[in-house]
Design brief:
single chain, 19 helices, seven-stranded antiparallel sheet, three-stranded antiparallel sheet
C-alpha cells in the first residue's frame, strides 16, 4: 500500500460534522429515556448483545456496542475478528476508535492547563519559538485551544490530496531518507507551518477540521511537560479514570486482535499493518486518532463524562469539564475539545465519530448526564457508518 492510500486508510480520521447534519441524526435518536435504572443488568446486556448481533446480520464483520448511565457501564460484542476466519470477537478485544481519540488528547491538554504549565491561549510562538520562527506569520498567534477546536487554519491531512501536495513538494525520497521519529516530526511540522492557512466553508468558515492540528497541539504539550503524548495519555487519562487503552492498530497489540476491513476493488478486505517507511510518518498523527480500546473501557470513558455533566466530582480535568459544559450551551454543530454539540427534539448531545484503518466508531453522550451509548465496527464503509448511527439510536431510544 503506498503512502497516499496508507494515510487515507489509517492516518486520516474523517470529520463527519456536516454529514451528520445532512443525514438528519435527529431522526435516528429520540429524546426519551433509554435503559432506565430499573432495567436489570441481564436485560441491559441482552439489549446490547442484540444490537451487536443485528449489526453483524447487516454485514458488519465484528461489532461492539456499549451503554452507560452514571452508575452502570456495559459493553457487548458479536461477529468475527477477521473476515474469512473463525475466531469470534471477544469482549476484551480492542477496536480502533479513530477520531474519538481527539477528546482524550483534549483531556490531556486540559490537565496540563489545570497544572499551570500552559494556558488555553498559549500561542505557538510562546510555546514553540524555534518552530514558530520558520512558520508563516499567520500561525504565530495560533493558540492551543484553537488547534484542539480546529480553528487554526492548519491543513487537514485527512485525505490523500493533502499528502499528494506534501509529497509533490518535498519528494517521495523523504519517506525513506528520514526515519527517526524526532526528525520526521520536525520536518513535517516545519513544512506544515509554511503552507497557506485553509478556511472552512459554509456557515462557519473559521472551522477547518485538521488532524495535523492535533499533532501540533501534542508538540506544545511535550514542550510544556517534557513528556510525549502517549505517556501523558496513560498517566493523565487512562490511569486516573481506570481505563485500559492501547495506542496503535489492534493488530499491533497481537495477532489475535481484530483486523480492520475496507472496500478494495469493490470487495471487503482485511487491512494489513503499515510498515517502513510509512509507519513513522503516520505516527505523527497519533494524537488525532490512534487509540484502540475494548468496549468496557469505552463505556467507562463515557460514564465519567456523564458524571461530570451531572456535577459529580470526577478525575476529569476541571477545565475539560468546563469546556464540555460550555459546549452544552453552544449552538448545534459547534466543535470543542473533541466533541460536537448536537441538538434534536429539544435535547442536547455530545457527539463524535471516528474512522481509521478499516475501523469505525460513534459515541453519543446526553448533555444532561442521563445516558450515553456507542458502537464500534471493524469495517469502514459509507453503509457501515449509517448502521452504527442506527444502532446507537436504538440504544438511546
Amino acid at each position: 500500500m503506498n503512502f497516499l492510500n496508507s494515510i487515507a486508510a489509517r492516518g486520516a480520521i474523517l470529520s463527519r460534522r456536516r454529514w451528520l447534519a445532512a443525514a438528519g441524526l435527529g431522526t435516528l435518536v429520540t429524546a426519551c429515556g433509554g435503559g432506565s435504572s430499573d432495567d436489570g443488568v441481564d436485560a441491559l446486556l441482552e439489549r446490547l448483545q442484540s444490537q451487536a448481533r443485528k449489526l453483524v446480520s447487516q454485514g458488519v464483520v465484528g461489532a461492539a456496542t456499549g451503554w452507560a448511565d452514571s452508575t452502570r457501564a456495559r459493553g457487548a460484542v458479536a461477529g468475527l475478528r477477521r473476515l474469512g476466519g473463525t475466531a469470534a470477537l471477544e469482549r476484551g478485544d480492542v477496536m480502533a476508535i479513530g477520531s474519538n481519540t481527539k477528546a482524550m488528547t483534549a483531556c490531556v491538554a486540559a490537565s496540563v492547563v489545570d497544572q499551570g504549565l500552559l494556558r488555553w491561549d498559549s500561542t505557538l510562538a510562546q510555546t514553540l519559538p524555534g518552530l514558530a520562527r520558520e512558520a508563516l506569520p499567520a500561525y504565530q498567534g495560533v493558540t492551543l485551544r484553537q488547534l484542539l477546536d480546529h480553528r487554526a487554519g492548519v491543513m487537514a491531512f485527512n485525505k490523500p490530496e493533502d499528502v499528494a501536495i506534501f509529497l509533490g513538494e518535498v519528494g517521495t525520497d523523504v519517506l525513506t531518507r528520514l526515519q527517526e521519529r524526532a526528525e520526521v516530526e520536525d520536518f513535517f511540522l516545519q513544512w506544515l507551518l509554511r503552507q497557506a492557512p485553509v478556511r472552512g466553508t459554509g456557515a462557519d468558515p473559521d472551522f477547518a477540521y485538521s488532524n495535523a492540528g492535533y499533532a501540533l497541539a501534542a508538540r506544545m504539550l511535550r514542550a510544556a511537560t517534557g513528556q510525549d503524548w502517549e505517556d501523558l495519555l496513560r498517566q493523565r487519562v487512562a490511569q486516573p479514570l481506570g481505563i485500559s487503552l492501547f495506542v496503535g492498530e489492534p493488530l499491533r497489540k497481537g495477532s489475535d486482535q481484530p483486523a480492520g476491513h475496507a472496500l478494495e476493488g469493490g470487495q471487503l478486505q482485511p487491512q494489513g499493518l503499515p510498515g517502513a517507511p510509512e509507519r513513522v510518518w503516520l505516527e505523527i498523527l497519533s494524537p488525532a486518532g490512534a487509540v484502540s480500546l475494548a468496549a468496557r473501557d469505552d463505556a467507562l470513558w463515557l460514564q465519567w463524562h456523564l458524571r461530570a455533566l451531572r456535577g459529580d466530582a470526577t478525575p476529569l480535568p476541571r477545565s475539560y469539564v468546563q469546556g464540555l459544559q460550555d459546549l452544552t450551551r453552544a449552538p448545534a454543530n459547534r466543535y470543542a475539545l473533541g466533541w460536537i454539540s448536537h441538538a434534536m427534539q429539544g435535547a442536547g448531545w455530545l457527539l463524535h465519530t471516528g474512522e481509521t484503518g478499516g475501523f469505525q466508531a460513534l459515541s453519543l453522550v446526553a448533555m444532561d448526564g442521563s445516558r450515553a451509548a456507542f458502537a464500534h465496527s471493524n469495517i469502514a464503509t459509507e453503509d457501515s457508518i449509517a448502521l452504527l448511527y442506527e444502532s446507537v439510536s436504538a440504544l438511546l431510544a
